[in-house]
């Protein structure tokens, strides 16, 4: 069976790909994280490692004249999608959301190819709602998401989680863990705002904690180079407590998670479910402009369960430091509260989705 998978949220896609070995797979997504910088995307690099055929697609985000460049990419994206569907002739299309999936899903519908959809977030975006109108089946991660789709199509599978997050496959750096560890991540692109807050607090954080910092690789701000320089100027006793990287590969992320006691990062659905599965307390810094404000909703679910706190990126850095210190001071309490969220975590989500689409 030939299965065409579209990106959007790539980490759950990677988890399902692991369960679809033995079938012919094609992945359609973004080759570059930021087109203007020509920086290879996380999805392109990870799909290439798995020797799955990767086809890049370029399409606009919305029908708006506010961004003319994005607007005029929409028809080009539909033309690309037409060619991809005609040439690849997949038996099934499995999409993980985002505007990139819309033209592929539309042409699949026109050519009578069944479309399956997985929605990671608590509140689906416009693209996902649109695809949901004609998808054969819709897999969801949060129970409340079912209200946005026809109930007869919906199955609560949970969010597929990469096996690698719980495995130590590769150690990108040696660390004798002598004190508690704070892991800071801005996601695959990194976050300039989060990086700035950590930079402001770095000396004070390192007096108490070892800090592992995944910075990202956007050339616009040069955060990685600047933070490396800042590290070089630290006192010798603090240098060995600060580990700064652009990215962690699929093989490295499990080691980082195994060391982390507390995580600081965005409140995306994949981070949310990885932390629930690993029982890692967190300070969530929701992306202010996330579609439909789903990151704020997910951060609130985490906080209300007693396993984390919320920091708004417009606040003073000192407030973030106070929150981090408070979590570390009550670490056992935060960890024990994960029982409140375990009902959301479904262990075999990737396998369940793979089995469902193969019934086709």
UniProtKB/TrEMBL annotation:
SUPFAM superfamilies: UDP-Glycosyltransferase/glycogen phosphorylase. CDD domains: GT28_MurG (cd03785). Its EC number is 2.4.1.227. Pathway: Cell wall biogenesis; peptidoglycan biosynthesis. One of its GO terms (biological process) is cell division. GO terms for cellular component: plasma membrane. It is found in: Cell membrane. UDP-N-acetyl-alpha-D-glucosamine binds at residues 6-8, 162, 188, 295. It comes from the Bacteria. The keyword Lipoprotein does not apply. Coiled coil: none annotated. Residues 181-353 form the Glycosyl transferase family 28 C-terminal domain. It is a peripheral membrane protein. InterPro entries: GlcNAc_MurG, Glyco_trans_28_C, GlycoTrans_28_N. Gene3D superfamilies: Glycogen Phosphorylase B. GO terms for molecular function: UDP-N-acetyl-D-glucosamine:N-acetylmuramoyl-L-alanyl-D-glutamyl-meso-2,6-diaminopimelyl-D-alanyl-D-alanine-diphosphoundecaprenol 4-beta-N-acetylglucosaminlytransferase activity; undecaprenyldiphospho-muramoylpentapeptide beta-N-acetylglucosaminyltransferase activity. Residues 6-140 form the Glycosyltransferase family 28 N-terminal domain. The keyword Cytoplasm does not apply. It catalyses: di-trans,octa-cis-undecaprenyl diphospho-N-acetyl-alpha-D-muramoyl-L-alanyl-D-glutamyl-meso-2,6-diaminopimeloyl-D-alanyl-D-alanine + UDP-N-acetyl-alpha-D-glucosamine = di-trans,octa-cis-undecaprenyl diphospho-[N-acetyl-alpha-D-glucosaminyl-(1->4)]-N-acetyl-alpha-D-muramoyl-L-alanyl-D-glutamyl-meso-2,6-diaminopimeloyl-D-alanyl-D-alanine + UDP + H(+). Keywords: Cell cycle, Cell division, Cell membrane, Cell shape, Cell wall biogenesis/degradation, Glycosyltransferase, Membrane, Peptidoglycan synthesis, Transferase. Belongs to the glycosyltransferase 28 family. MurG subfamily. Cell wall formation. Catalyzes the transfer of a GlcNAc subunit on undecaprenyl-pyrophosphoryl-MurNAc-pentapeptide (lipid intermediate I) to form undecaprenyl-pyrophosphoryl-MurNAc-(pentapeptide)GlcNAc (lipid intermediate II). This is UDP-N-acetylglucosamine--N-acetylmuramyl-(pentapeptide) pyrophosphoryl-undecaprenol N-acetylglucosamine transferase.
């Amino acid at each position: 069976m030939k299965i065409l998978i579209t990106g959007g949220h790539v980490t759950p896609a990677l988890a399902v790909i692991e369960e679809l070995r033995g079938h012919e797979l094609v992945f359609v997504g973004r080759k570059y994280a930021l087109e203007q910088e020509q920086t290879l995307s996380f999805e392109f690099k990870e799909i290439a490692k798995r020797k799955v055929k990767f086809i890049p697609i370029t399409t606009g985000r919305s029908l708006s004249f506010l961004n003319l460049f994005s607007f005029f990419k929409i028809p080009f994206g539909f033309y690309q999608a037409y060619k991809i569907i005609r040439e690849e002739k997949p038996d099934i299309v499995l999409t993980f959301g985002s505007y990139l999936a819309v033209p592929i899903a539309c042409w699949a519908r026109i050519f009578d190819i069944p479309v399956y959809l997985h929605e990671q977030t608590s509140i689906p975006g416009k693209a996902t709602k649109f695809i949901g109108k004609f998808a054969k089946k819709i897999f969801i991660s949060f129970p409340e998401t079912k209200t946005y789709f026809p109930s007869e199509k919906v199955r609560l599978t949970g969010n597929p989680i990469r096996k690698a997050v719980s495995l130590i496959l590769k150690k990108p750096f040696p660390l004798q863990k002598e004190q508690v560890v704070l892991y800071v991540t801005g996601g695959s692109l990194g976050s300039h705002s989060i990086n700035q807050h950590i930079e402001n607090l770095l000396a004070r954080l390192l007096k108490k904690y070892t800090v592992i910092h995944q910075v990202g690789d956007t050339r616009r701000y040069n955060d990685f180079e600047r933070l490396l320089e800042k590290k070089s100027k630290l006192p010798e006793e603090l240098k060995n407590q600060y580990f700064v990287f652009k990215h962690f590969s699929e093989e490295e992320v499990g080691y980082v998670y195994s060391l982390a006691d507390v995580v600081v990062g965005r409140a995306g659905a994949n981070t949310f479910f990885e932390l629930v599965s690993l029982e890692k307390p967190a300070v969530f810094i929701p992306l202010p402009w996330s579609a439909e404000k789903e990151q704020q909703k997910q951060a609130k679910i985490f906080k209300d369960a007693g396993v984390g706190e919320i920091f708004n990126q417009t606040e003073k850095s000192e407030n973030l430091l106070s929150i981090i210190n408070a979590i570390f001071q009550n670490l056992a309490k935060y960890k024990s509260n994960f029982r409140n969220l375990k009902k959301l975590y479904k262990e075999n989500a990737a396998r369940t989705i793979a089995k469902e689409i193969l019934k086709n």
